[in-house]
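To whoever is on call:

I kicked off a structure prediction for a single chain this morning and the downstream step that reads the tokens threw a length-mismatch warning. I double-checked the sequence; it's 229 residues and nothing unusual in it as far as I can see. Pasting both halves so you can look.
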Amino acid sequence: MDKVQDNKLQVLGKLAASLTHEIKNPLSVLKLNLDYLKMTFEKFDDETKECINNSLEAVELINTLIHSTLDFSKKNTDELGNYNINDIVRKSINITKGNSNRKNINFKLNLTDQLPYLEINHTKVLQVIVNLISNAIDANPDNSEISINSYLNNSNVILEVIDEGVGINEEYKDKIFDDFFTNKEGGTGLGLGVCKKLLEEHRANLEFKSNKIKGTCFIIKFPIEISGE
């Protein structure tokens, strides 16, 4: 890593730590209000109840990420557990449901049953899948579909997130995993680079296939040797 890039990352680290402290207070207010709504659950219809539960899950994820950021410099051992990737996919869809509903985007799930459990950090993998689904929602037009597939292939558990967007320009394909690269207005360029690094911690790989006709397919390959079974 060159000196300029290293300096950028150091500045970003300090900024992230500062922002996390600022985020904690409004996040606490948001959680208190959601908890209050949960206490009066019987007043709401099923759709509203689902929205409240999904919002609480999203707040909990943000809170976990905040604590992970604040604890980063302490180099704590990452907590691993045995998880089914399909369960994390379903939780990710619930977290992003608000955005997909606004664009009337449906999810087509082709998730293979009885996949081996993976010994992974739940929060980090959840963060990756939420990010990939959020990107797919951003890329998709209204009234469209996102396909998510899981299956076994040789020595890997495969997860695919496929959108119906316009695809990735050829000029960007070699850059999308670079730190600070983005072609989104207001984007930070951290998303896919962070996703790739988090997966590398699990000895997993992130790839993509994209063209102007079929949109983009992001592919995660988890090696079977990290299986929890």
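Update from on-call: the warning came from a stale cache, not from the record. Cleared it. Sanity check on the structure: Residues 3-39 form the longest helix (37 residues).
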